[in-house]
Each structure stands twice: as C-alpha cells, then as structure tokens.
Amino acid sequence: MITCRELIDFLDRYVDGVLPAPVAASFEDHLKVCPQCVDYLHSYRETIRLAGEAWCDDEVAFEDVPPALIDAILAVRGRAADESA
Amino acid sequence: MNAAMSEASAPVPTPPDAALLARLRAGDGVAYEELVRVNSGRMLAVARRMLRCEAEAEDAVQEAFTQAYRALPRFEGHARVSTWLHRILVNACLIRLRKRKRHGETSLDELLPRFMDDGHRIDAGEPWPQDALAQLEAHEVRTAVRDAIDRLPERHRCVLLLRDIEGLSSEEVAEQLGIRADAVKMRLHRARQALRALLDPALAGRGTPCDE
C-alpha cells in the first residue's frame, strides 16, 4: 500500500483525476484506512475552492473605477489615432 | 476569475464579440467606450490582486488597453475579447512583478507536510469544516484566504493566482512565465499545500468536520 507521503506528493494529480486507474485505486485503498489523509484530501480540495472564491466579494463595478483612469484609457484611442495620422 | 476559465475554452468569437470587433477596427469611438465600460472594472480587480499596489494596478490596466488597441489589427478573434484583454493585462502585471526586487522572501519548505521515515505524516492536525464558507463567517474566511495568499513567496503566489484564481491552464501559465508546464504543476501543488498550512490555524477544528 502507498504511504501518506506518496499520497500527498501526488495529491494534485489524484484531485485532477489524471492518475492511471490502478494508481488511483491504490490511493482509494489508502484513504479507506487513513482518516488523517482523508482530512488532508478534504482540506486540500477546500483550499483550492477557497482560493477560487477569495475575491468573489471584491468585484469592481465600472462606476467604481477611478474617473482619472477611465479618462486615461479613453485617451488611448485618441493618441493612437494621432500616431497613425 | 472563473469566468475567464470558461471563456478561454470558447473556440470562436460569439456574435456580439464579432460585431464589437468590427466596430473597433472601423475606429468606432462608441464601441471603444463600450469595451472600456464592460472590461475596465474586472481588469482593475485582476491587477489589484496581482500587484497589490493601487498606482501600479491602474498603470497596468491603462498599459493593457494601450497594447490591446495597438494590437487590434492583429487580433484574429479566436478567443473572446474579454479573454484576450485579460491575457494582455496578466502579461503586463507579470512584467511589473519581475521588475520588483524581492526582499526576504520566505521559504516554502516549513509550510509543507513533514513525514516520518515510514512515510506517515508527523504533523497531522484537526479536521477542517465541511464547508468553511457556509459554516463560518464567509467574509472573514475570504479575508483570511486573501491574507494567506499574500504571504506566499512571490513565485508561488503568482502561479496560484494565475491557475486557481484567474483560471489559466498550466500551459498558459507556463507560456506567460517562460517555464515548463510540469514546473507550473509542481509549483502549484506546493503553493496549495503551503496555503493549506497557512489556513490551518484558522480552519482546523472549527465547524462540522467532513466525513468523506
């Protein structure tokens, strides 16, 4: 059976579902008898999910973009037109 | 964010994008204003989290629009316009990050799991809640996660931001950073393990544990 170290070393591939079937099966055999690795797997998956949602409540609406920045971005088109003239 | 992931897989421009592109290429000022209105807020949010400096974030967004406008004639429309702008912005942010001097960057090793000679983990702790965002104060959890990501060494923070938050593929990150996709995957796995360790004090032993 694989060790905790081997399981954690290849956990990203297990989570992504890219391990060959026999290797994934040996992961599952280990998880059946190792509650610590079950907890680690859960916290690893939760870490990925939490990172993905960390900025969900931090969106920037157009109205909240500093007006000076909007002016500078809009001026880009004018400058490009001048350059090509 | 995760929207970028779904947009990245779109093989052809959607009709609204095709129409917008045609108007932009024809020099339509209203189309350009529309482009700015739809994308500037999202782009500023991306630049803020990558650069963590308001002035630099605003400069990067302006720079990205400048580069995009100049590159319009060469843009073939194989990706969504928003995805294309996002990639240009990410590149502009990465160039700025590369120019920064790194001071006292912490090592990741102390945040990785430790093992005994027989392969068992030494420092196994308490289980995490099943769903931290639902079971704990979501705003506090998100703040803790953002703070923890900011504490990662820059090269690991970058890969984690681009893969798990901005939704780029390992191949896209590899191209942006000039490293191999395998190196991206390895760095990402280490970054996630380190982030897990940084979050452990806030989440271990709280809420209902998982029964996976």
Structural class of chain B: mainly alpha
Give me the CATH superfamily of the largest domain in chain B: RNA polymerase sigma factor, region 2, helix turn helix motif
Q: How is the biggest beta sheet of chain A arranged?
A: none
CATH architecture of the largest domain in chain B: Orthogonal Bundle
**Can you count the beta strands of chain B?**
0
Q: What is the mean pLDDT of chain B?
A: 87
Strand content of chain B: under 5%
Largest interface: A-B, 45 and 60 residues
Uncertain parts of chain B: 1-11
- Our measurement of the CA-to-CA distance between the termini of chain A, rounded to an integer number of angstroms, reads 72 Å
Structure notes:
The complex is a heterodimer of chains A (85) and B (212). With 85 residues, chain A is mainly alpha-helical. Chain A is 72% helix and 0% strand. Chain A has helices spanning 4-9, 11-16, 21-33, 35-52, 67-84. Chain A is elongated. Chain B has 10 helices and no strands. In chain B, helix 2 packs across helix 3 (29-51) and helix 3 (29-51) packs across helix 4 (54-71). Chain B is elongated, with a radius of gyration of 20 Å. The two termini of chain B are 28 Å apart. In chain B, 37% of the residues are buried. At the A-B interface, helix 1, helix 4 and helix 5 of A face helix 3, helix 4, helix 7, helix 8 and helix 10 of B.
